[in-house]
Amino acid sequence: MTTEGRPDIDPAIRAYVDQRLAEIGPRVPENRVTMVVFSGDLDRQLSSLVIATGAAALGLEVSIFYTFWGLSALRREVHLKGKSFKQKMLAIMTPARLGKMPVSRLNFGGIGRAMLKSAMKDQRVASVEEFFAMAREMGVTFIACTMSMEIMGISEDELIEGVSLGGVATFLGDAARSRVSLFI
Amino acid sequence: MTTEGRPDIDPAIRAYVDQRLAEIGPRVPENRVTMVVFSGDLDRQLSSLVIATGAAALGLEVSIFYTFWGLSALRREVHLKGKSFKQKMLAIMTPARLGKMPVSRLNFGGIGRAMLKSAMKDQRVASVEEFFAMAREMGVTFIACTMSMEIMGISEDELIEGVSLGGVATFLGDAARSRVSLFI
Amino acid sequence: MTTEGRPDIDPAIRAYVDQRLAEIGPRVPENRVTMVVFSGDLDRQLSSLVIATGAAALGLEVSIFYTFWGLSALRREVHLKGKSFKQKMLAIMTPARLGKMPVSRLNFGGIGRAMLKSAMKDQRVASVEEFFAMAREMGVTFIACTMSMEIMGISEDELIEGVSLGGVATFLGDAARSRVSLFI
């Protein structure tokens, strides 16, 4: 057995170290951020997108799992035809797209939303739609929760393109190997 | 020193590798999911139970730590006797059990709750009570926050059976070794 | 090559083990808890501070990143001069300091806040201001989200002393190496 360098390490020792390292498992967690966006409030959705684009810019993989009222972010349009009365009511509460969502405080029938959007513009902060487009361009994965879609009667053709569908197992599969998981 | 196989690795080398592996610590995190459920909204509680049952089905250990309004999920009944006026008011805001909780949006004095529950039934989605029972059967640990219980004047006999009591150290003990921790 | 003990392990083997361990990366995560506090509700802020002080008492490093309505916790005073009308409205929604924040339920124009605070006092639970002071003394790091400050027109001199300023990269830098990350 030579001692000149790594290439000459005894193969038995290599094998032993390999085995011991395999036992402690893969590097956990991965460079990954996973979020559940439950809220349909404009300000909370904005927070999730600021985190998503920030994380993507830092080289982290990002998935956002949209559930319940959060699904608003992924709706292209709202169909009422073919929905039960209850589903129509739920549909109306999840308006199509980000720009129409209420804010969690200070909403006053839309005044709060207008004010927040306008204050963001004054400060040259990107709008929530721009953040969403950026997130998409940066490769953030958007997943629509199929159970919520069923309950609320949202069909796949009401969603924007490029959205994945998934259930709780999809979310947990991503979250379990993430450095950061958030419920927003 | 022989090179035939692992059983013959020099004991000194074994000891060295053992020591170096011990330095990097145990495999962190464990296959575990921990949630704080702060909200008493039916829809948020439902989300926590969907995640809990999904995670348990995937073989993860799950603890849910119920605090503040979230304690509703664990209340068997609400006693008003022996409570201060303030505690009575707080008690009324945390109704007994899941089926009586409001939803975070669209509540309109209970219409939203009825509508959501009915839409879930139409889609053959389990009710929040069924999800809770499933979670319990699957071994999910339910912990009631003792500080919240004190503030709100909730006594142990108002809680359902099989609930653990714990403080923030209990939560952190579980969360610190979890793959996923969520505040709902 | 001797086999008497670790100090005599072949340097080539040491180097090989070092390299293999370096490949699996540093011990991840660190003993660290990171929170985003988005909500300006007294009860949610209280939860974040109970977790922060509990974690600090257990020897974990804690950072709290305050964003949007959560910034209330860090405001020393509210200036209206020099702010746009929209920023004035947003400023009024983020009152200075913890004691003036509404609760997420049962607020009724401040009655809920008074009742919760009084019930906490009756039970000899520290007030939210006391929890904040404790957290600070225990070395919890408080970070104000600069993007939220810009949107809401909050200047640095409206914040209490000893607060760091940071963006989403600051939050992610802490969260990515934390055992527990929560969005509150």
Concise structural overview:
3 copies of one chain form a homotrimer. Chain A has helices at residues 11-23, 42-57, 85-93, 111-122, 128-137, 146-152, 168-175; strands spanning 32-37, 61-66, 141-145, 164-166, 180-183.
Poorly predicted tracts of residues of chain A = 1-6
Assembly classification? homotrimer
What distance separates the N and C termini of chain A? 58 Å
Shape of chain A: elongated
Q: What's the helix count of chain A?
A: 7
Question: How much strand of chain A?
Answer: 5-15%
Q: Structural class, from secondary structure content of chain A?
A: alpha/beta
Overall mean pLDDT of chain A: 84
Which two chains have the most extensive interface, and how many residues on each? B-C, 45 and 47 residues
Q: What is the tally of beta strands of chain A?
A: 5
Query: Strands of the largest sheet of chain A, in order across it?
Result: 4-3-2-1-5
Helix and strand sequence of chain A: HEHEHHHEHEHE
Sheet having the most strands of chain A: 5 strands, parallel
Radius of gyration of chain A: 22 Å
Helix content of chain A: 40-55%
What does this structure look like?
3 copies of one chain form a homotrimer. The termini of chain A are far apart. Chain A has a 5-stranded parallel β-sheet, sandwiched between helices. In chain A, helix 2 packs parallel to helix 5. The radius of gyration of chain A is 22 Å and the shape is elongated. The first copy, chain A, is α/β, with parallel strands linked by helices. Chain A is 41% helix and 13% strand. In chain A, strand 1, helix 2 and strand 2 form a beta-alpha-beta unit. Chains B and C meet through helix 1, helix 3, helix 6, helix 7 and strand 5 of B and helix 1, helix 2, helix 4 and strand 5 of C.
